[in-house]
Design a protein that fits this description.
There is one protein chain. About 45% of the residues lie in helices and about 10% in strands. Helix 10 packs across helix 12. It is globular and about 55 Å long. A hairpin with a 2-residue loop joins strand 2 and strand 3. The protein has about 325 residues and is an alpha/beta fold. It has a single domain, classed as 3-Layer(aba) Sandwich (Rossmann fold), CATH 3.40.50.300. The strands form three sheets. A five-stranded parallel β-sheet has the order 5-6-4-7-8, sandwiched between helices. The protein starts with a helix and ends in a 7-residue tail after the last helix. It has 15 helices and ten strands. It binds adenosine-3'-5'-diphosphate. The site of adenosine-3'-5'-diphosphate has 21 residues, from helix 3, helix 6 and helix 13.
Amino acid sequence: MEQLQSRIDEESHGDNLIATLPTREGLSTPLTLFKNCWLRPQVLKNCLPVQDKFMPRSEDIILATHPKCGTTWLKALAFAITNRVHYALADHPLLEKNPHKVVTIIEAQFLSERGGDLDYIESLPSPRLLATHLPLSLLPSGVCKAGCRIVYLCREPKDAFTSMWHFENKVRKGDPISLDEAFNMFCEGCSSFGPFWDHYLQYWKENLARPQEVLFLKYEEIMLDPLKAVRKIAKFLDFPFTEEEESRGDDKELVRLCSFEVLSNLDANKTGGIERPGNMFIEHSSLFRKGEVGDWVNHMSKEMGEKLDILVEEKFKGSGLQF
Ligand code: A3P
């Protein structure tokens, strides 16, 4: 009862706050600007209690990603890496469940189907494997102070935008948003969890400051050499592959299990979907579109590509981050 009341209070606090913040229409849901980050209103309501109630532990592993940059892939890889003593690859939970169902999203807990607040996260044994789309600035400062290990994944912005545009039109209920309109919003920083440049840069700087605790990855890097990336992630997370495992080819099999080809062809990923707060339903299949590098050329004009490249160069100038 007390828990329900506190949830109602949190909801109305969120509603009152949202009513005072800038809001922009256009994407599949409106976006609200909170502390320089554009969030879907329901995500914002969820993120408020996260800031107060989420208790980071030093053993936590946090998969932080910008949307449409390979979150599904990273979840599969990190889950398979950290749980490989528990499951044989031939009889693996990822063959039966979508990767989003095996890794807990921090900001989705408050209104999750599991019912209510962050107790579920508290109940998980260490090391907890958690995920978030929140920028570092919206996570509790304890995440950095406790020394949680963060694996961050981003993607070349033209491809991230292209993936996002397709996804938005898959999940929206009304008329599709045009490429031009979505592109203009993206370049103004107005995308879910955007501006994308702030998101990328916050984790990039944290990686430079604390490389032992923050691993910064790009989608393209994993695509280029998935085996190398998997070994790197495993080592970073303190689950390195032994010589015996490598000589048996366990690492190669893990890469194959998590590949686009294998995951996208499983029934678990071809059917069903995920309920997200705010009446949003994400079909599992919409999380596996093409899985290619450079698909932007098939959708965006050359001029759009150049415009975004110039913006990216401007925003990342002097940071050392390049695409
Ligand atoms: P495309 O839309 O370019 O195909 P997220 O998981 O963050 O929502 O990102 C979705 C993007 O990752 C989509 O890109 C999707 O196809 C791609 N993706 C999903 N699973 C993948 C996998 N196992 N390997 C490579 N790419 C994958």
